[in-house]
Amino acid sequence: MWRYTLTRLLQGIITIWFIATATFLAMHAVPGNPLAGDKAMTAEIQANLEAKYGLDKPVSQQYLIYMGNLMRGDLGISYTQKNREVNDIIREHFPVSATLGIIAIIFAALGGVLFGALTALYRNKWPDTVIMLMVIVGISVPSFVIAAFAQLALVRINGALGFSLLPVAGWGTVAHMIVPSLVLGLGTMAYLTRLMRSSMLEIVNSDYIRTANAKGLPATRIFTHHQLRNAILPVVTVLGPAIAAITTGGFVVELVFAIPGLGRYFVQAVQQLDYTVIMGTTVFFGAFLVLMVIAVDLLYGWIDPRVRLN
Amino acid sequence: MRTPGQQLLLLGLGSVLAIALIMALLSWASGGSGAGAGVDPETGTITLVLDTEPPQMNSSLSADAISGRVLGHIMEGLTRQDANNELVPGVAERWEVTESGATFWLRNDAKWSDGKPVTAHDFVFAWRNTVDPNSASEYANIMFGIRNAEAISAGKLPLTALGVTAVNDRELRIEFANPVPYFARMTSFSTFYPIREDFYRSTQGRYASSADTLLYNGPFVMERWVHGAHIRLVKNPRYWNRDEIKLNVIDFPYFTTDGNTIINLFRDGKIAMADIGQQNIQEAQLQGWTINSFSEGALFYVEFNHRPGHVTRNRNFRKAIQYALDSSEEVNRVIKIPGYAPGRSLFPEWLDGVDDSFRKEYPVREVSPDWDKAREHLELARKELGLERFPPIMLLTGDSPVANKVSEYYQETLKQALGLEVRIDVQIFKQRLAKMLAGDFDLVMAGWSADYADPLAYGELFHSANAQNRGRYRNPEMDRQIAIARTSTDPRTRMDAFGRIQDIVVDDAVILPEYERGRLYVVDPALSGLVRRVVGFDPDFTYARIVDKVSQ
Question: What separation, in Å, do the N-terminal and C-terminal C-alpha atoms of chain B show?
Fold first, then answer.
C-alpha cells in the first residue's frame, strides 16, 4: 500500500511538471505581447516594462526562472492586476469557487440519488416521465442559458413580491449561494440521476434481490439495504472527477452572478495573455485535479482490495 | 411500516436540512456581508457595479479606466474638473502657466487621511516615480512635457533631474521641455496625483495593494477592499471641501462585465446606475426607463497601411475607398446604436478651439460618398500601380459585435462599389495588437480616446514617429504642422496648425473616421448630480446627491 501511494504521488508530480511545461510553451507560442495595450508605448517605456517582467530574457531562461520560482511556491505577479501576487489571487478566490462547488456537488449528489431512486421506483409512471424530461433539459441546456434564465426568474419573483426574496447577484451570504450553486450543480445532478436510475433498474432484476424477495424480506428493507446501497456505488465513482470539474468549471455561473471565484481569472487570463495568471491557475487547477484522482484511486484501493496494485 | 416512497421523502427532507446547515456554516466562515438598495436615502449610500477589480491603484502607474474611476473619488490632484467639467482648484488654490513652466500654490487645508498636510514634496515624489525607468509606468510619456522626463525614463539622467521642484511645502514649480499650454488641465489626471514618500516607503513595495496600504486625499476614502469582490468608499471627514460632498457611501459590491446581470440588478433596485449595451436597449425601453446617452469622445477609424508593398500606400486607392464608404450609413443603418455619431474628422466634436468648439471654428472638408468618383480613383490607382487586378484586401478587426457588423458592411460595400475583394481577419485583442504592430494588414479598425483635453491628443497621432501610427504614415508637412502645434504658445497659431492637420487627413485619406462612440445608461431617479465626462475619470459621483423621488 505504501509503495502504491508513493508511486501514484510521484506520477502526480511528473504530471504536474508536464502540465506546467506544456502550458508555458503553448503560452509563449501564442502571438501577441502580454504587455501591449490600447495605447502604443514608446520603445523606451516598452523596454522598461519588459525588463520589469523579465520578458527581455530568452524564453529558455524565462522557463528556468519560472520553474525555480514555482518550486519555491512563488507564482509571480499578475500582468493585468499589476499589484497582486498570483498566490494571493488563488488564496483569495479559490475558497469562493470551492464553496460554490461543494454546495453544488452536494445538491447534485443528493438530488441525483433521490431523483434517480424515485424514477426507478415509479418506473414508467408519471414521476419517472416528469423527472426524466427535466434530466434531458438539465443535460442538454448549457449552464449560461440556465444561469441567465434563473436570474431573470429571480428578478420577476422579487418584482412580483415587492421585496427581495433572493439576491439577483453578488456574494457573501447564504441567500447569495442558493441559486448559483443549484444552477452550477444542475448538469451533474441530471447526469447522476440517469446513472442512478439505470443502476437501480439493473439491480431490481438481479439474483440477490430475487433471493431477498423469496426470503420474504419487507419491501422497504430490500429497497434501502440492498437496492439503494448497491446502486449508489457507480455514483460515488464519478463523484471524484465531478467535484474537480465543478470546482474549476464555474466560470459562466461566476460571471453571471458576479461571484468572485477563481474561474473568471482562469478564463480571462488566457484572453488577456496574462502569463503569470495563466501559469498559476493552470498549474493549480492541474494539481487539484491530479490530487483528486489520486485520492479517489487510493480510496478504491482501501474500499476494494481487488483494485490494489501489486 | 413506511413505504419506499415515504422513505425517500424523509431522506429528501433530511438532505435539505443538511444543506441548509452546511451553507450556514460556510457563509459564517466566509464572513461576507450583503449589499443594500441601489439608493438608500437614510444612510446616504449608493450601490454600483464595477466592471472588474481595479488593476492598478498606484496613481503614478495606473493606466486604466476602472482604477481611474475609483482613484478619482479617493484622490485629488492640483486641479480637478467640476460638475460642468470646468477646471477648478483642487489641492492647488491658484496657479500660473507660462511658456517655460508653471507654478502651483497649494492650499493649506488640503490634508491626507491621516491628518498630515498635502505638500509640494508629495507631488515631486509621485511624478518622479512615474518617470522612473525602474517603475516602468505605461503612462510615463504623459510627463514628457516636463523638462528631462524623457531622458530620465530612458535611463539617461537621474530622477533628481526632473524639472519639478518643491520651492517650499506650498509652492510647486515645473519647468517644461516644450510649451504645454494645457498643463493645468493635465494635473487633474490621475497620473499627476500626489503620493507621500514616508507612507509609500512604509508599505515596503506593497503600496496601493489593499485599503490600508493607500493614503487618501480625495473626497472619499476606501473603507473596505475585498479583492475582486467588494469596494466600499466612505466620505472623507478630512477633505478640505467636505461640505460640498453629499453622499456618505459609494458601495461597489458587484464586480461583473455581464450586461444582462447589470440590467437585472438595476431592475431589482440593487444598483443606482447601469450601462446599457446594444442587447439591452429594447429591454430598457420596455421597462419605460429614461435612457440617457452620452458621447464618450473616443474616435474610431479605419487605418490604412502606408508601408511599402501594400496597395493602400497608393493615394488614389485610398481616395477610392474614401469615396465608396459612408460613415452616416455605417452609423445609422449598420451600427444602429443611439448615441453613436458619424465620424467626419480626426478631431471629435467635443474639442475646444480658440473661443468656440474647434469643429465650428475649423469646419472639416466633407467628402460625400460618390461611387463614380470612387471608381475613377480606383482606375487611376490601377494604372499607377500597374496592376491587372487588385489583390484581396486584408481587413484586420476585433471580435466585438459592432466590429463584426461594420466589417461585413465594408466587405459588401467595397465589393459592390469597386469590385474589391475584402478578407476579414478577426483577432482577439492582443493578437490584433501584435498584427497591427507588425504591419500585417491593409486596413485595420482602430480607435483613440484622449488623455487630456487638447486637440494635440488627436493631432499628433499620425506623426511619423508616433508609436500609435500603426500604418506608418509619413508626411513631412504633417510632421511640420505637429511641430508647430507642439511648440507654439499662441492659441491661434496652434489651432491653425490643427486645421491644416485636419485637412491633410481628409485630402490625403490618411485614415477614414468611422464614428464617435456613444454610451447609453440609466440612472435611478433618486440619484442626481451624476457627471459623465470625456477626459478624466468617468462616471463621477463626487457631486452626486440623493433626492426625493416625489419632488422630481
Answer: 67
Instruction: Work out how many domains chain A is built from and give that number.
Output: 1
A282: in domain: yes
> Strand (E) positions, B147-290?
164-168, 171-175, 220-226, 230-235, 249-255, 273-276
Report d(CA B235, CA A130) in Å as an integer. Answer: 55
Measured between CB atoms, which of B33, B226, B264 is closest to A155? Answer: B264
pLDDT tens by residue, B167-207: 999 999 999 998 888 899 899 999 999 999 999 999 988 99
Q: Look up residue B111 and give its DSSP letter.
A: B
Q: In this structure, are residues B47 and B33 in contact, taking their beta carbons and an 8 Å threshold?
A: no
CB contact under 8 A, A170 and B253: yes
Name the residue type at position B15: S
**pLDDT-derived band of residue A63, with 50, 70 and 90 as boundaries?**
very high
Q: How does residue A310 score in pLDDT terms, banded at 50, 70 and 90?
A: very low
Q: Kindly determine whether residue B136 and residue A48, on different chains, have CB atoms separated by under 8 Å.
A: yes
Looking at chain B, which residue has its C-alpha nearest residue A265? B228
Digit-coded pLDDT (tens) for B312-361: 999 999 999 999 999 999 999 998 888 899 999 999 999 999 999 999 99
Question: Does a structural domain hold residue A232?
Answer: yes
* Structural contact between residues A179 and A150, judged by C-beta atoms closer than 8 angstroms: yes
**Three-class DSSP category at B167:** strand
Look at residues B219, B74, B187, B55 and name the one whose alpha carbon lies nearest to residue B120: B187
CA distance A140 to chain B (A): 22
Say if residue B2's pLDDT is above 80: no
Domains and CATH numbers, chain B: 15-53+221-295+520-551 (3.40.190.10), 73-216 (3.90.76.10), 296-518 (3.10.105.10)
- Asked whether A98 and A246 are in contact (CB, 8 A), the reply is no
CB–CB of B133 and A93 under 8 A? no
Residue of chain A with shortest Cα separation from B33: A172
A215 to chain B, any CB pair closer than 8 A? The answer is no
Angle between helices A143-161 and B259-267 (to 10 degrees): 10
* B90-142 confidence digits (pLDDT tens): 999 999 999 899 999 999 999 999 999 999 999 999 999 999 998 888 888 88
Task: Flag whether A11 is in a domain.
Answer: no
Residue A68 forms part of a structural domain: no
Residues 6+ apart with CB under 8 A from A270: A278
Question: pLDDT per residue over B515-525, tens digit each?
Answer: 999 889 999 99
Most B CBs within 10 A among A27, A35, A45, A222, hence the mutation to make, goes to A45
DSSP B31-99: T------SEETTTTEEEEEESS--S---TTT--SHHHHHHHHHH---SEEE-TTS-EEESSEEEEEE-S
Is residue B139 within 8 A of residue B71, CB to CB? The reply is no
Closest by CA to B292, choosing from B36, B522, B501, is B522
The confidence score (pLDDT) of residue B29 equals 58
Contacts of A152 in chain B (CB under 8 A): 264
* One-letter amino acid of A269: A
CB atoms near residue B206 (< 10 Å): 11
CATH classification at residue A97? 1.10.3720.10
Tell me how close the Cα of A267 comes to any Cα of chain B, in angstroms: 14
Secondary structure in 3-state letters for B367-406:
CCCCHHHHHHHHHHHHHHHCCCCCCCEEEEECCCHHHHHH
Distance CA A276, CA A286 (A): 15
Residue B387 corresponds to which cell in the numbers above?
496592376
Residue A292 domain boundaries: 87-303
Q: Do A174 and B24 touch (CB under 8 A)?
A: yes
